[in-house]
Amino acid sequence: NQTPGDVAHQYNAAPAAAIPDNSATGVSSTIDVSDTGTITDAKVSVTITHTYIGDLKVTLTKGTETITVHGNTGGSQDNLTVMSFALPSLSGKALAGAWTLKVVDSAAQDTGALASWALDVTAR
């Protein structure tokens, strides 16, 4: 639903980073965006391998705002692939800057990794 003047951007990261088991530190991955503009639409996609997704909290931070993408739900299901999680609260904010995805595993035993994530942002 782009309007004239809107430009679509996609940014990807593939850290393939292990998520520390039962650690509040978690694992973080940052995408530094140099493109300018005002966000009109933003979505995030994640691919996380994990043997118990109910252990996981996934957040995205842009500036002073932190949005929970996945909040310890899903119980014993394996792997978390969230496609196009909408981020309406970022509409009207600046596109440029650091975008940081953080994954915290808040329970012992099950382990996994942050395979990749992507931002799909429309800005004008």
Description:
The protein is mainly β and 124 residues long. It has strands spanning 7-13, 17-19, 23-33, 39-50, 56-62, 65-71, 80-86, 97-105, 112-123. A hairpin with a 2-residue loop joins strand 5 (56-62) and strand 6 (65-71). The strands form two sheets. Strands 1, 2, 4, 7 and 9 form a five-stranded antiparallel sheet that branches. It has no helices and nine strands. The model has no long low-confidence stretch (mean pLDDT 94).
Total strand count, please?
A: 9
Total helices: the number is 0
- The rough form would be described as elongated
| Strand-residue proportion | over 45%
Structural class: mainly beta
Average pLDDT metric = 94
Residue stretches low in confidence (pLDDT < 50, at least 5 long) are none
Question: Over all CA atoms, what is the radius of gyration?
Answer: 15 Å
Distance between the termini: 13 Å
Report the oligomer: single chain
Helix percent reads under 10%
Order of helices and strands: EEEEEEEEE
- Can you summarize the main beta sheet? 5 strands, antiparallel
Feature tags:
single chain; 124 residues; mainly beta; 4-stranded antiparallel sheet; 9 strands; 60% strand
Quick overview:
By secondary structure, the protein is mostly beta strands. The protein has strands at residues 7-13, 17-19, 23-33, 39-50, 56-62, 65-71, 80-86, 97-105, 112-123.
